[in-house]
Amino acid sequence: MLIRDENISEVQPCLVIIPTYNEKENVEDIIRSVFCQGEHFHILIIDDGSPDGTASIVKTLQQEFSDALFLIERAGKLGLGTAYITGFKWAIENGYEYIFEMDADFSHNPEDLPRLLDACISDGADMAIGSRYISGVNVVNWPMGRVVMSYFASKYVRLITGMKIADTTAGFVCYRRDVLEAIDLDKIRFKGYAFQIEMKFTASKCGFKLIEVPIIFINRRLGVSKMNSSIFGEAVFGVISLAVGSWFKKYPKKRLNRNSVKKRSLAREGMN
Ligand SMILES: Nc1nc2c(ncn2[C@@H]2O[C@H](COP(=O)(O)OP(=O)(O)O)[C@@H](O)[C@H]2O)c(=O)[nH]1
Ligand SMILES: [Mg+2]
User: Fold this and answer.
1) Could you tell me the distance, in angstroms and rounded to a whole number, from the CA of residue 185 to the centre of ligand 1?
2) Nearest protein CA to atom 26 of ligand 1, as residue
3) CB neighbours of residue 13 within 10 Å
4) Is ligand 1 within 6 A of the CB of residue 80?
5) Separation of 207 CA from ligand 2 center, angstroms?
6) Domain, as residue range, for 238
7) Spatial separation of the C-alpha atoms in residues 25 and 30, rounded to whole Å
8) What is the predicted pLDDT for the residue at 257?
9) What is the pLDDT, as a whole number, of residue 245?
10) Which residue's alpha carbon is nearest to atom 16 within ligand 1?
11) What is the pLDDT tens value at each position of the chain, 272 positions in all?
């Protein structure tokens, strides 16, 4: 089945970007679960030279899903933020209209992918955010300390940046292509949670519409978290620097609309 946006009347290919570092217990299952959501979902894995052999599992699966499963291998652990930037550029080059961020560890349920997509297609979101905190606290099996930290971190970010988003560090996101084209990806500075905040902050400063979709976030059952105190520290100080930096920065304003997407796709058809 291929998704059709009636306003655009064209086939909309979707790319789910999944960064991996030592995810051998999860990677095959998450890939199969995403593909169960429909043929319009393609996957790009960005693996940072996982010592546990995650990339070789992906390569084996590529024989089965040769048209829909892609892999970029980087030499070492370079961080989540730069993994996504690499993925975003690849997605733009390869003509995807909807681009997702998703973790490999099943904290983000692949069955929620169509709901995020629908928020973009039917509700007009430029960026749909899978939100843990839009309807209470929907986090399962995280240690209480981590839930409290994450919840108050989101409140802190709201206070400092003024963003009207309940879950500012969320990493389950669907972007319309226009958002990633408008943002200067080479200027995105942060790597961990601060990266997630920076993307939302920049998109909202550019005038894009951010919509939160409630999700239930479940702690990973397999493998280990790569969260550490430096990622947390980056976020605490990064937010202040983002807010202060924005006073002096000019953000490109949202300019493309659905008609321009239509024009672009017609142009692409003309090229074929
Ligand atoms: N490519 C890449 N992926 C990473 C890196 N750090 C974390 N990840 C992946 O990013 C996702 C989220 O990381 P995770 O450890 O689950 O963080 P947590 O959910 O905040 O505890 C998982 O799919 C990880 O494998 C990294 O440096 N490079
Ligand atoms: Mg996780």
Assistant:
1) 20
2) 79
3) 19
4) yes
5) 30
6) 12-271
7) 10
8) 53
9) 87
10) 225
11) 444 445 433 447 899 999 999 999 999 999 999 999 999 999 999 999 999 999 999 999 999 999 999 999 999 999 999 999 999 999 999 999 999 999 999 999 999 999 999 999 999 999 999 999 887 778 887 888 878 888 888 888 889 999 999 899 899 999 999 999 999 999 998 888 889 999 999 999 999 999 999 999 888 888 888 777 677 778 788 888 888 888 888 888 876 555 445 444 544 444 43
Q: Which of 40, 54, 44, 38 is nearest to 16 (CA)?
A: 44
The ligand 1 atom at the shortest distance from the C-alpha of residue 193 is: 20
In a domain, 5, yes or no: no
Count: domains in the chain: 1
Q: Residue 96: CB partners within 8 Å, gap ≥ 6?
A: 13, 14, 15, 42, 177
Ligand 1 center from residue 99 Cα (angstroms): 18
Residue 6 lies in a domain: no
Measured by CA distance, the residue closest to atom 25 of ligand 1 is: 20
The rounded distance, in Å, linking the Cα atoms of 72 and 206 is 29
54 close to ligand 1 (CB < 6 Angstrom): no
In a domain, 3, yes or no: no
The rounded Å distance from CA 269 to ligand 1 centre is 37
Cβ of 46 below 6 Å from ligand 1: yes
Q: How many CB atoms lie within 10 A of CB 235?
A: 24
The ligand 1 atom nearest the CA atom of 224: 15
What's the CA gap between 234 and 80, in Å, rounded?
Answer: 13
Q: Is 79 in the pocket of ligand 1 (CB under 6 A)?
A: yes
**1 found inside a domain:** no
Contact (Cβ atoms closer than 8 angstroms) between residue 157 and residue 237 = no
pLDDT at 220: 87
Its pTM stands at 0.88
- Residue 23: CATH number of its domain: 3.90.550.10
